[in-house]
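ESCALATION

Customer reports they have been waiting on this structure for their group meeting. Please prioritize. Original submission:
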Amino acid sequence: MEIILYLSNGYPTLENSYQTAIEYADAGCRIMEVDFPSRNPYLEGQYIADRMAKALEACDDYEKYMESMVKMKKLLPKVHFLVLAYENTVEEIGTEHFIEFCKENDFKDVLLVGLKGETIKNQIIESGLKVSCYVQFHMLSEEIESAKASNGFVYMQAKPNGNINPDFPTLKDCIKHLRD
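Update from on-call: job pushed to the front of the queue and completed.
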């Protein structure tokens, strides 16, 4: 069994992120989800959103985040990294630049969240990377369709933020529907 740990990249500083990544690896973690903090993390709870905001206060240069991810990957060669990015962050970085960064540094798995459409997701998939999509608890049909048209895993919100789809009122109902 593998356990995936989430790393708030840049929180409270990029240097602290390296230390946290080392602690995760020393504890036995072999898969880490590392983020590009978003300026608009609207799908996150307050805890993660606050961490992203503080990270961006300390460093708002996405090139530095890229350097930090490469440093972590070199420092921890036995760890598989999943890159989390909001679509708005990919747009800010530049889609081609983001894809080039991922491919050049062997970051093959992207968790792409906050999609406004399919264009950026499809560009990333067409480049040969895997894209996993996020489905909120209230099971929006466009998110489900986007996940079905992706080539990665489905990243399911585990708890509702006040929104519950009456057709899928429980987490078990949501998961069964997604699997079907």
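Sent to customer with the following note: The chain has one domain: 4-179.
Escalation resolved.
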